[in-house]
Amino acid sequence: MRMNLSLVSNRNTKIFLLIFLTVIAIVGIAFVPRIPQQQSFHHFADQRNLYAIPGCLNVVSNAGFMLVGLAGIISALANHVNARLRLMYLVLFTGILLTACGSGYYHWAPDNNRLVYDRLPMVIVFMAFLAIVIAEWINLTAGYRLLPLLLTAGILSVIWWQHTENAGNGDLRFYMLVQFYPMILIPLILLLFYKQSRNVGLLQMGYIIAWYIVAKILERYDDLLFHKIKLISGHSLKHIAAAVATWYMVTFFRIRHIKSPGN
């Protein structure tokens, strides 16, 4: 009995820690000076028009998201998976598919108005993935119930940025929280709730995080890489690296929830 109480207490402490850190992050970001969208963000290194497509490689390099999203949706629909988990993964994979459309639309003629359609699908991916990690490692019901709340928070962060941008005092703080805080919270969840029986696909989780970091580095060095490589820019490579990260989301789903023949 004492052991059971100890385990419950320890688990509750871990959950409290996650909630506490999240509250600190939300409150803390409110005290950070507002962060406007720099117009230089839209000035990508590779602006070549090929086959009548403006900024061609930045547009077509999003094809990977479309392929991954379709593969994920097909996998989720074609296999017997818990209904709640299936819905969560379908939201994730649909977000990845929509990222191809939104990012391609934005890169065709980059500006703040089109950037909204680039960011909306991405926050769906960020928030759905976080909800899935909570469901897989902490509690299925908690992750499932948090999904609509997290999606709402993500979408509102983009709407808030657009509203403040149109009002002349652009504020990216909450969008940045939605984008980057899960990359801190997710590894922490994996560490705190590490349990051998739950860690099928843990390697894929590492690949997802690693490739996302690679994508952000490639984005940061867009100009440098374009001038060094000539054929392709850092931003186009970022799309490819990010698509690889999302592919590992599909392989994670398959490893955890699709039994191989004979099992």
From TrEMBL:
<feature type="transmembrane region" description="Helical">
    <location>
        <begin position="174"/>
        <end position="193"/>
    </location>
</feature>
<feature type="transmembrane region" description="Helical">
    <location>
        <begin position="120"/>
        <end position="139"/>
    </location>
</feature>
<keyword id="KW-1133">Transmembrane helix</keyword>
<feature type="transmembrane region" description="Helical">
    <location>
        <begin position="200"/>
        <end position="218"/>
    </location>
</feature>
<keyword id="KW-0812">Transmembrane</keyword>
<feature type="transmembrane region" description="Helical">
    <location>
        <begin position="146"/>
        <end position="162"/>
    </location>
</feature>
<feature type="transmembrane region" description="Helical">
    <location>
        <begin position="12"/>
        <end position="32"/>
    </location>
</feature>
<feature type="transmembrane region" description="Helical">
    <location>
        <begin position="89"/>
        <end position="108"/>
    </location>
</feature>
<feature type="transmembrane region" description="Helical">
    <location>
        <begin position="52"/>
        <end position="77"/>
    </location>
</feature>
<feature type="transmembrane region" description="Helical">
    <location>
        <begin position="238"/>
        <end position="255"/>
    </location>
</feature>
<keyword id="KW-0472">Membrane</keyword>
<protein>
    <submittedName>
        <fullName>Alkaline phytoceramidase</fullName>
    </submittedName>
</protein>
